[in-house]
User: Which sequence fits this backbone?
């Protein structure tokens, strides 16, 4: 379930929307106070954005909390006493780093919190996505969640993984929350690894191809390459090179995505 961002017919922009689901064993709406206190522990002075509670537009809406999240942002946390439909959250767990090599599977969830961040104006920035990550981690911690399903990241993360990564310093741990990864086998026996969440920042996903014996190190390089792309702020030109050190020259090529041929990804091959 992904939030599409598009312009209105008159050329004005729709509010920007980030959306994810915090998964619960039992239906319980945490208090606004607990969420705000947890949020402050995840920002750790890395962000100037503040989270504050706002009065609900509909006082009768007892299962919803309304927050202000920095300038020109609003955020909502709404309790839905049912699982995420169609097993979407369960199916996306295999794309999270939290499930790789750990055997983690999403526990049964009987309810979820719909968490949204709305913004009018310019497209989603790294700071926007980072503040939304802090909000999700805060809601997960305050509610005793079992998982976080982030559709636009293509993954369901375990709650403990999400909370621990959100607390780490630097951007790289958060990029690991913004992107699920999909592994596949190439016809020549090599392994390909595809990122699943870079479209949130208006950037292309990366498919990295490597010998099967080097899959683990290739995964680390994939996230380093995504971090470089985010710092750069724009796609690398076709035919440009990237490498794991100053001497390596791996060519960048643009190809249709193997999971959606209407989308273009950049492909890098490690010999």
Assistant:
């Amino acid at each position: 379930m992904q939030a599409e961002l598009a312009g209105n017919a008159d050329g004005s922009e729709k509010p920007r929307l980030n959306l994810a689901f915090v998964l619960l064993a039992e239906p319980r709406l945490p208090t606004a106070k607990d969420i705000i206190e947890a949020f402050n522990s995840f920002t750790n002075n890395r962000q100037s954005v503040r989270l504050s509670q706002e009065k609900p537009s509909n006082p009768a809406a007892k299962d919803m909390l309304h927050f202000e999240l920095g300038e020109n942002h609003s955020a909502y946390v709404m309790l839905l006493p049912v699982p995420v439909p169609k097993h979407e959250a369960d199916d996306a767990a295999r794309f999270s780093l939290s499930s790789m090599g750990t055997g983690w599977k999403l526990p049964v969830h009987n309810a979820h919190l719909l968490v949204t961040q709305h913004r009018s104006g310019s497209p989603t920035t790294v700071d926007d996505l980072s503040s939304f990550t802090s909000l999700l981690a805060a809601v997960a911690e305050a509610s005793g969640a079992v998982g976080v399903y982030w559709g636009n990241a293509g993954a369901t993360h375990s709650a403990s993984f999400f909370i621990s990564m959100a607390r780490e310093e630097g951007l790289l741990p958060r990029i690991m929350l913004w992107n699920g990864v999909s592994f596949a086998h190439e016809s020549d026996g090599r392994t390909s690894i595809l990122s699943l969440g870079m479209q949130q920042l208006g950037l292309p996903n990366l498919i990295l191809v490597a010998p099967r014996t080097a899959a683990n190190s290739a995964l680390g390089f994939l996230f380093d390459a995504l971090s470089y792309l985010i710092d750069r702020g724009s796609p690398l030109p076709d035919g440009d090179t990237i490498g794991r050190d100053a001497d390596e020259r791996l060519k960048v090529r643009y190809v249709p995505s193997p999971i959606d041929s209407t989308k273009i990804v950049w492909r890098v091959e490690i010999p």
